Each structure stands twice: as C-alpha cells, then as structure tokens.
Amino acid sequence: MKTLVIIDDEVFFRKSLINFLEKQNLYNIAGEANNGQAGIRLIENVKPDIALVDISMPVMSGLDMIAALGTDCHTRFILSTGYEDFDYAKKAISLQVRGYLLKPLDHRELMETLQKVSDEIDQENSRNSYVNNYFQFRDLYTRQMQLNFFQKVISGTTISPDDLEKIPVHKTSDYLTILMEIHNANPEIWDEKGDFSLLHTILENICREILQPVCKELIYIDYSQMRQYIIMEKSSDFSFTDLEQSCLRLAGIYDNIAQISTFFCCGTPHEGVEGIRYSYEEALSVFHNRTASSSGFLYFMPQSHSGDFTLKPLVYNDILIFLRQQNSPALCKYIDEYFNDIITKKIHIRQTWSVAAAFLTVLDGFITECSQRETLFPLLENALNTYQNCQSALQLKQLLQSTCKAVLDSLADEKNPRKSALVSQVQEYICLNFNHPDLRLETIASHFFVNPQHLSAVFSQESGVTLTSYINVCRMKKARQFLLEDSPSIQNVASLCGFSDSGYFSKCFRKYYGISPKNFVSLTEENSY
Q1: Tens digit of pLDDT for each residue in 410-453?
Q2: If 0-12 CB within 10 Å is exposed, 13-18 middle and 19+ buried, where does residue 201 land?
Q3: 183-192: string of b/e by CB count within 10 Å (b at 16+)?
Q4: Is the dihedral of CA 279, 281, 284, 286 positive or negative?
Q5: pTM higher than 0.85 for the full model?
Q6: CA 66/CA 51 separation, integer angstroms
Q7: How far is 475 from 265, CA to CA, in rounded Å?
Q8: How far is the C-alpha of 397 from the C-alpha of 336, rounded, in Å?
Q9: Cα–Cα distance measured from residue 274 to residue 284, given in angstroms and rounded to the nearest whole number
Q10: Is the dihedral of CA 396, 397, 403, 406 positive or negative?
Q11: What b-and-e string marks burial along 437-460, b requiring 16 or more CB atoms within 10 Å of the CB?
C-alpha cells in the first residue's frame, strides 16, 4: 500500500479528502501539513510515496516547496489548485510533477491520477530491482569464474584459451602468491556458527587498500575459507622488504579492527599462469616449514633445487584417494616408490623437505575433511615439527609412512566406539535410502523428528564425518559396486545413486576416486580382459 501525505492550507479540504481516501482503503495517509515549510519537514520525516500538494499556500507555495526539496527527493507530487493558469502548469512540468488537478476535485479524476502515479512507482521499482539484480549476479558470476580459474591454476589443471581471455593474466608478467591463515579469531565475534561473509568483505577491502601500493596489480583475493590466498602481479620496483612491512601492517589492522590473528607465507615471483602455481607451492612449503617462533611474515628462499623433479598435481589426488579408502598398505607402498625415485635422482634435501611438506598438507586436509583435526592433529604436528630434522630422503620416507599409518589406525579406532541409537538409525536409514535425490540433512532430521543442527552436530561428533560426507561416501561406494557388477550406463548409475544430474555425479565420482566413471568402467573392462 502506497503512503500519501496531503499539504494544503484549507482545513476543510484536507479533512474531506482524508475521509474520502480512507474509505477507499487503497492508500495509507501518513500525515498532513498546512503550508510549504511544514510540508518539507513532513516529507523529509515520513518520505511518502505520493504527496498531494496545493500550489497557493501561505509561508511557502507548493511549487517553491517542491523546488526546495530538490532532485534527491523520491516522493511523487500531484498538484491541486483553484486557478487554471498555464504558467503554473509550465513550472510544474519543469519540476517533474506527475499530476495536475483543478479544484474542486473530481473524485474519479483524483483516483485515476493516483493510480497512474502508483503504476509509475511500481514500474520504476521493478526496473531498479532488475538493474540491481543484474549487477549483483554479474559480480557473483565474475567472482565465481575467477575462483574456478585460479583453483584450476593452483591445482595444475589445464587452462583453456577461453579461460585465459577472461582473466587478466599475462604470459610475460611475473606473479607471486601469498597464503594468509586466520589462526586465531575472537570467538565472541566470529564463532564457527556465524556467517563469515561480513568478515571476508572486511578483510578483502582492507587488504586491497594496504597491498595495492606494493604491487603492480592485485589479481585475486580468495576468501572462500579460513586459509586464503592473494595473487599479485609484481611491479618493477618490487621488494620483499616493502611487502613484509605491508603484510605486518595489514596483520596489525586485522587484529585491531576485526580482532583476528593472521600469518603470511609468500612464494617468489614466477612468470605467467604456471608461475602462479609455482609461487603457491612455494608459499605452501613455507607455511609448513614455519615454527612457533616464526614472525608474522615468511617468504620462500630457493636453494639448490632440481628442475627436472616437480610435484605433479596428480600426486595429491593419489594420496588423497588412498587416505579416503583408508588403505594404509597401498599408501605406504606409494610413498616408498615415490621417495625411492627421489633417492635415485639424488634430489637436494631442501627440495625433499618441500615434497614431504606437500604430503603432510594433503594429510592435514584429509583429517579436516573427516572432522578429526582436533583429535589427530597432534600426530601430524609431530611430523611437521620434526621432518626438517631428517637429513635424508630415507628418513623422511619412514617419517611419512609412520605418520600416515598412525592417522589411519586412529581413524579406524575412532569408528568403533559406542554410538547413540540415533546415529546408528540415521546411518541405517541413509544406507537404505541412498537412491533418493532428496536425501539430505533437513529431510533426515524431519524423518526422525529432531532439530537439523542438533543432528548434524551429534552425527559429526560420533561418526567422525559430516552427515553430508557420509551420504556422499555411501553413494560413491554403491556407484562403484553398480559399475563393477552390471556395467550400466553412467546416467542409470547416477539415477540409482540419487543423482538427478549425471554430469554432477561424474564430478563427484572423479573427486572421490580420482577417475571418471567412464574411465573407471574402461579400466575395469581392460583389467578383466
């Protein structure tokens, strides 16, 4: 319902008009005034949609009042007057008045004019909403596209020419990556259950302001998780000293304004798209090489590294698959073969440390994925604190194998303790209904008549994984079984496992097993043959 005010010096006219409009029950009468000055105060306080204004009033006329309110006023004005004067009409048009009525008012004409102005308001609101939505979705699309692009770069995925055209990364420019970890956020302000979108916006705005002067251009800032990365294009006068001062200043501002503690690890500049990934891996290595006594900023210092030995992205996937399968013998064998290759090629110990740090990074991500970081991180922390004491690849190999085995053994033990009847019933329900597309936290909670948040917390605490992850694992195991036993089409397997989109099913399968369903079937058939 539109709000309306009446500004007229004739008391009888105002009361009569208010009485008539209230009976129509189409407009909310928000106030009345008897002259232009009082009308300005009324409109500024109430901000009505429409104002019915008399032209000739004491103190200040209606036209002078409208002119004084200026172009920032969003109220639509309808003028009324007892004088049929063209000069008034001309001035009214120049002030963008939406209607012009002669007294005594004809009620039918008044309602038609009000309806016309109301329709204009609705059309303008709709147009503004469309424009706002367009720019909002455009920004979201651009940000998501950038996120996907840089995730591909960091993971070593092949970048298409179309992707390169959309992102401002040049072949001949040097880029470096900074990892920034939020390692201590004030729980009273930023608790785990809160929405971090406000925090991310604050961090990004401050980061751009502080770091922009020390680089040629800030290409991307990722605030999708609690460990962020910043990609910048190196300027001609770049120095790590300036960057360190800016990062420490940034950390101080974050601590004072947002009450969060941060730690910065920086890689060295490298050329082109591949350089972003190299710099990221260096920053990641620095992150895992840091000690408790490290300053708030560290950067990678290259030693004698072997150019013909680089850690391929596929290695990360292989390790993660063995961990998810909890196949300790296969993982230990993989580490054994990998480090035997390092020993054969006589890779420098500092580069071998970086490889070990990368292996431990995957292990860290895995225990976080299993919601067991608080329980299992002490095992990982011991390896992180001691791996640089190893003076040979053989010692590093033994450390990694013992750490991975300890983590997987602890996970196996964690699965055996007593579970509540609710968790057991939920797990059984998921196994029986994995093929339902609508199987998710809310529907399961509704089935058992419990609060979704409570169910999520209890399930994660007792089973060691989130409920969503448990559903996905169940579906992936069933999908593998279907593909091995019956070899149906990918689309049929997706449907049997509760996926309405076969493309999304294939993506989930590849993420879990490290291979697409199609290639899995082909590989199985070849092995069978």
Answers
A1: 877 655 444 567 888 888 889 888 888 889 888 898 888 778 88
A2: exposed
A3: eebeeeebee
A4: negative
A5: no
A6: 10
A7: 38
A8: 7
A9: 16
A10: negative
A11: eebebeebbeeeeeeeeebbebbb
Q: Which tokens in the block code for residue 61?
A: 């006329």
pLDDT band at residue 32 using 50, 70 and 90 as cut-offs: very high
Residue 325, both tokens? 């399968």
Q: What share of the chain is helix, strand, coil (3-state, %, to 5)?
A: 60, 10, 25
What is the tens place of the pLDDT at every residue in 367-413? 877 777 777 878 888 888 888 777 778 888 899 999 988 888 887 76
CA 87: distance to chain centroid? 58
Q: Cβ neighbours of residue 361 under 8 Å, at least 6 residues apart?
A: 284, 288
Q: For residue 12, what are its two tokens?
A: 């009888």
Q: What token pair was written down for 221?
A: 């800032």
Burial state string for 38-65 with b = 16 or more CB within 10 A and e = fewer than 16: bbbebbeeeebbbbbbbbebeebbbbbb
First-residue to last-residue Cα distance in the chain:
74
Give the pair of three-digit tokens for residue 6: 């009446």
